[in-house]
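Table S5 (text form). Sequence records supplied for joint modeling of the two-component complex.
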Amino acid sequence: MRSLAIASIGAAIFATSAFATEVAPDSVTFGEGGTVATSLTGVAGDPASGRKLFANRKLGNCLACHVNSELSEQQFHGEIGPSLDGVASRYDEAKLRGILVNSKMSFEDTMMPSFYRLKNGARTMKKFDGKTILTAQQLEDVLAYLKTLK
Amino acid sequence: MKKLLSTVALGIAALTIGQAASADPSRTAKLVIDGTEISTHAKGMAGGPLDELYSGWLFRSDETRALQLDDFDNPAFVFVDDGETLFNKVDGSEGKSCSSCHEAGDFKGLRPVLPRWNEAKGKIYSMENYINDCRTERMGADKWKWSKPKMTSMVALISLQSRGLPINVATDGPVADIYEKGKELYYTRVGQLDMACSNCHEDNYGNMIRADHLSQGQINGFPTYRLKNAKLNSIHARFKGCMKNIRAKPYGQGSDEFQALELYVASRGNGLSVEAPSVRN
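The corresponding structure-token record, covering 431 residues in total, follows.
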């Protein structure tokens, strides 16, 4: 009886939520070389939103570490990671998604944060503990933007 | 046409120089205060993590560096003056001030060797611990908080007596375990952003992280006046700020962890000169 109720709640969520097919951070499947082949949301990423997230210091903050000529109107591009000019010509979508989700699956010991992973460094502040840096859709948006950098 | 071409060439040269200047600590700047040069670089310990040690001063802009060249321009000296006033002020049940027992100049040589093992207390001591012991045990006065203005002003006054002397903390003997603990903390990745001190200050010093030029994270200039918050900042308060930036829960100021980290980070700068009170971003 109880399981029936749970099943029907589940069905209701499945039926009404636009994120019904969203992949939970713990359920992401990695392929060869740290790739993630399928979209985390099933909803196409929005490159315009991704462009904003790229520069946003509290969300993507990609510009803190990477040069990106496409965002030349923004001052101060970081020099920590590689330039992202032409990054979509170097990596395909699955590889880029994999790097964003969990960079360590692609590059062992990289300093790059993992943007869709629940368990990160020790002593994570309560406010951020058990949370991902980006939501699944935000990550897909950033990915859609990166794919324009050819 | 020729003029245009040479202008373009100049522009390119300027751009290249600009980038080179931002990518490295300054190779030419000299820290000369009142005619006395203070060395801002040193050789790292043999077998240590850094071949060359660079003061954070070398990573700052020309304008910020200039503020430290003259004690009248250095905004930290307002607080050194406060420290001097406090030094002479009677406080507590015993009717004493610091100057009842000490002259500020007596402390020349203390800053370079702190933190160190205090045998009588059976623990590691930072300058803040010594100051509070004097206050509570000799003066009958209340403790000061680790990073509040009275404490940082007093630490600045006492540290200034050693300006120009090389940092020389001991890492062996009774502090050997604390040193190892500090080293472990330095290389442990923390916070949601999952980074260790070493990611920025060992692997990437000299690189820009957005608008900030990453230094080696040396602490020879502390307490340091930061333009960002217009006050003196303690070593532990700076550690706290770094941890919060990477979304990690900071250890307490004055905690065993931060004292271990203070010892380890200080030791990475053994050989650099005491620069307190310095000016940074």
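Note: Chain A touches chain B at residues 57, 61, 63-65, 75-80, 111, 113-114, 120-129, 131, 133 (CB under 8 Å).
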